[in-house]
Structure formats: C-alpha cells, structure tokens
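User: Hi! I'm a student and our assignment asks us to look at how structure tokens line up with a sequence. Could you show me two examples?

Assistant: Happy to help. In each example below, the sequence comes first and the structure tokens follow. Example one:
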Amino acid sequence: MGDDVSESVPVRQDQPPSYEKSDLVEEDQPTSVEEVALELMNFPASQKKAVLEDGSLEKTVLEVEDNPTTSEEIAMIGGQDLKQYTFCVFQEESHLKVLQSLIDEELSEPYSIYTYRYFVYNWPDLCFFAMEGDRYVGVIVCKLEATIGGVLQGYIAMLSVDVEYRKRGIGRALSEMAIEAMAMKDAAMIVLETELTNKPALALYESLGFIRERRLLRYYMNGVDAFRLKLILKNSADLSFSED
C-alpha cells in the first residue's frame, strides 16, 4: 500500500504494559501464529543505520541521500520522497520538551513527564525524531526488554507526526527505523497497542507486517478498546510469545 494513512494518534500507554486476564478477549488468529515468520523489510541502501550500539547519547543523524550510483532512485520509503528530512535519536534534555509537545497535542489526557522519562532515559537510542530543517515534525518512542521466557521483545509506545506533515511517509519511515533498530538488537518480536477505532493506524502497522493478537477491553482512559498488534521477527518453535 502507499503512504501511511494516519499518524494522528500516538499509541496510548501511560505505564509499562500490564494486563489483567479479565480485560483480554482473544481475537480470531491465523491457524498457526507460531509459524508466522515476517522478514524485516529491506531498507534503502542510502538510509544510514539508526542504532547506537554502545548505548551512548552521541547524536546520530540519519539522512536520506541520493545514491550517486543510481541517480534515478531517490531515497524513498513507502513511495514517498523523504530526502528533505533528517532523523536523529534522543540525546539531550531539550529533546524531552520536543517529544512532549509532539505527543501531548494529540492526547485528551496527556502523559506524565515521568512516563516520557521512563522511555527516553532507559532507551534513548530507540526514540527517533524526524526533522525538516530545524523543525521537529515527528517522533516514535520504543523500548526493548526480555520477557519471562528470556527472549527480547520490542515495544512501540508512542508515534506522532505533526498535523502539517502527515500523509508524507514520515510515520512509516519512523516505524521502519524503530523496527530495524530493535531487530539489530536481536528482538524476537515487537508489540504495540492502538485504538480499535483507529483504522488508519491499524492499516499502517498491518502494512508493516503486524498481526492482531488480542483485543483489550476498555484499555484507554476514555473507555475505548484497543487491539494489541505483534510483529514476529524470528521464526522459532521455541519462541516465548508476549506476556499478558
């Protein structure tokens, strides 16, 4: 499919994921979810890798550049020309205010500053910003932790793009960078939640290979249900899937 159809509502999660059994309703699943193996998409050769292997806070800027060997192929993601944008990871306190500004404008009940700090200070290299010139126009916030079964599970906590910059592939680009970064850190799977009624967000994530795992009743503060989505990065019969 084409451009990401909506990046208007960041994934809502005030605290690290924690679910009650009574709040979960199983959705119809493929006949063998365990056998679903999704290859991480091929990223443009001109896109620099968005990972700080040493976990430092050095600024890493990802620029989508022209490839001189194939001048007719302008760096694009999802059919969108992104060469005017740059991308960087969280690196300093000032980024916290930018992050808060981009996400809070989308929420009727904004997050606590402590929620943002929980993510960006523990996983700064999994928080990516999109910029046009000096203007921050999008952000994605993720984390990576081991499950009880010992496998690494990535989590996309928040995704937001400035209203003036939607429908340009920025949300898709940020999502792909986050997925690649977590895959390079040996994540076995990536999960997220999004509103049941947010069809554009569901379309974006499903186009990236996520499948619907569960329906979470009254998940959000406004009483709206959510879908929990999962992207499998490793095909293993011994894989311990995400915990309830």
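Example two works the same way, sequence first and then tokens:
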Amino acid sequence: MFDYTFQWRSALRALPDMLAGAVVTFETAALSMIFGVLIALALTVMRESKNPLLRGIGVFQGS
C-alpha cells in the first residue's frame, strides 16, 4: 500500500535554492523586527513628549 520511495537526488539538487530562500526569509524577518522596534520607539517617544502635536500623533499608537 505504501510503496513510495523518496527521491533524494531531486531533493539534494533543490537544496541550494531552498537554502538561498531560507537566507532571504531570515533577512526579511530580521529587517522587519528592526523596523518594527524603531517605529515603536519613535511612537513611544512621541507619546511621552511635552509637545502637544507630537503627543497627539503618538496617541494613535494604541489605536
């Protein structure tokens, strides 16, 4: 019933492309985290600011 043989040769041929895709995925995730932290820090500073204009913009952080 289960008469399947895994095709190792095909999988190993595709390995370089899969590893390149994994690197792109890792870079995208790292950049997203960095930009997310920077945006969150900017909004937090705006929210805690004494300037009413900046504080008003920073209030939208929670919405």
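Here is something you could point out in your write-up. Residues 8-47 form the longest helix (40 residues).
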